[in-house]
Amino acid sequence: MIQKKIKKILTAFAVIISIAGTMFSSCNYLDIEPYVMDMFTLDTIFSKQEYVQAYLNNVYSYLADNGSFRGNPGNNNLTMPWTPISDECVSGYKRMNYHSYPVWCNNELTPENFYSFDRWNTFYEGIRKANTFIMRVNECQEASTLRRMEWTGEATFVKAMCYFELMLAWGPIPIVPEKPADLDTPLDELMPERSTWDECSNYVESLLKRAIELLPETRLDNSEIGKATKNAARAVLSRLTLYTASPLFNGQNAEFSGFKNNAGVPYLNPEKSMEKWAKAVAVAKELVDLKPNDLYTVPIMANTPKAPVPAAEQANFPAGAGGIDHYHSYKDMFDGECIQVSVNPELLFTKQRSDVTEYGRYMDPGMIEGWSGMYMPQRMVDAYYMADGRDINNASDEYKYDRTGYTERDSTFSGDRSTNGFTLLTGTRKWYVNREIRFYATVAFHNSFYPSTSSPETLIGADGKTAKYFSNSVSGKEAAAQRSATLGEEYPMTGYLCRKFNHYEDSWLSNGRRKLKYGINYRMAEVYLNYVEAMNELSPGETYTVDNISVSRNEDEMKRCFNLIRHRAGLPGITDADVADYETMKKLIERERLLEMMWEGRRYFDVRRNKTAVIYENEPVMGLDVSARTSEQEKFFTIIKATERNYLYKVFTTRQTFWPIPKHEIDKNYNLDQMPGY
């Protein structure tokens, strides 16, 4: 008993120092002298306007970089691995110090070892620094009242984002005190237990609403891109409320019936509430009303393909699919061609100093010295529509899905072959012909042409600027095997890479260059889809009132917003019959979210919140036979289970719904309930 009391006392003291230390510095928690010195430092910092701005910039550094998903310890940006550990991607890397994505996919993650993705304490440190800023910013009398209000809004926004990132990974989490603890604080208050998901959601919602009150509507110019605005906070609130209304958090979670806090309250709401869906509609509606048609578009070009849409949908965008180049309207946002973020109405929040430019190397083919470490499964490739919006298994005679044969001529659209256009080369498998525009903007299939205008001609190899994935090709398996042992997995093991983030200038060869890109955290296309998804869940004929806003299932509005996404991609819109049928719309929304936001980090959460991960992440990873050599062309195009590495598989069990809390955190706080299954 005495030993237990001593342990509790020591634990309490450690927790007090931990909370105080992280509130005021990043010093060692038990190193008291630096903590005292930091008190003096903070007094100095909050007396000078320039120091306060520098401190706020540091608070911003705790925002996750959603433009990149690589787990590299040498990468200074705060990345999370959502794309490589979802069913939209598979990684050939399995390095224990970093790039350890298969540890998640193979259900091998343990609380004892998170490898390079233990961000629990990092996000809480960001929260505590934001709290410090909010508590002390008004000490800076050099700054105007308006400036201090905006600063407070920015710090509140970052704080909300850090909490949300924790929730996305760990589900229900502890909400920490906003003020530092002292020695008189009771031990149990120093060791907060998890709050329920609804408590977390409501708290983060309150932070975002406070941020909306304080933040400016817009930023002045590109020098302020990356700073929060009202619309950025509204976008986060839209994603948060949609997720909270979703089945996992709203009544369809029987597998977690035993996951309760000390008072016996379930961490996940066991009863469905239609009001949550109504709130998600109301929140999205505010942004949709403010930005009714705000998708990024590029004017039609001389060789823009004609969108195969009905006559009634041929008006110029946004009324129809006409007047725009669909390829560049989609792709230019991601590859850096749209240089001025401030002129893109679709972007709601982007990350300054994103890793997305360097991250692109993991997707680029070997002939331009890309690393080819992340691949697209065959199921993702097959999910894309034909050009006229039909499924590959129900293709029309005009836009045929040809499972055999190869193209007999080159064809270029949406620009020039040598620069910004897309070229479908002679000898390309015909099942890549007649596909929707987002397919060409995203999927790098065998025989894909890369203009790579900055590649020195003297360094171009035998395959030129064409990505060939035969085993004996420059971008294939045998070439990778000639590299060092740690790089032998760098070839497209499913027969597909992603080109969504590749600019036509990009090259990784010596003296080549890369177009600077920005990391997109939130964009308007997602909000339109949030709006439609939430509205589809409302009972027909019912009206709900949320914060004095009345919402109902408005089929005309659902159709309009959904068709903005379809028409921007050059696809026919959905019909009145589609939108009138709940189940049809549910399937269409799920697929549209997948295709529109492919490799943007949303899929991981979509399949969990909608309870479909158990379906998709337990399917075998399929691809092409990349062991085939040039002389075995037909063998190459055989669809097989990916077996290039024994860890190229996905598996999903209930315990993978959320991450386990790291053991070192459980050891410090005996009130923390571990995720079931760990």
Q: Low-confidence runs (pLDDT<50, min 5 residues)? A: 1-40
Total strands: 14
Q: What would the average pLDDT be, to the nearest integer?
A: 91
User: Given the structure, what is the number of helices?
Assistant: 23
Strand line-up in the sheet with most strands? 1-3
Radius of gyration: 26 Å
What share of residues are in beta strands?
Answer: 5-15%
Tell me the major beta sheet: 2 strands, antiparallel
Q: What does the overall shape look like?
A: globular
- N-to-C span: 28 Å
**Percent of residues in helical segments?**
25-40%
User: Structural class of the helices, strands and pairings?
Assistant: mainly alpha
What does this 3D model show about the protein?
This protein is mainly α. Helices cover 37% and strands 6% of the residues. It has helices at residues 2-24, 32-45, 49-60, 101-105, 120-136, 145-170, 187-190, 197-214, 230-245, 274-290, 326-335, 356-359, 378-383, 437-442, 477-481, 524-537, 555-568, 576-580, 582-596, 603-609, 613-616, 633-636, 663-668; strands at residues 90-91, 347-351, 374-375, 411-413, 422-424, 443-444, 448-449, 466-467, 497-498, 519-523, 543-546, 549-552, 622-624, 639-641. A two-stranded antiparallel sheet has the order 1-3. The protein has a two-stranded antiparallel ribbon with strand order 2-10. β11 (543-546) and β12 form a beta hairpin. α1 packs across α5 (120-136), α3 packs antiparallel against α5 and α5 (120-136) runs antiparallel to α6 (145-170). The two termini are 28 Å apart.
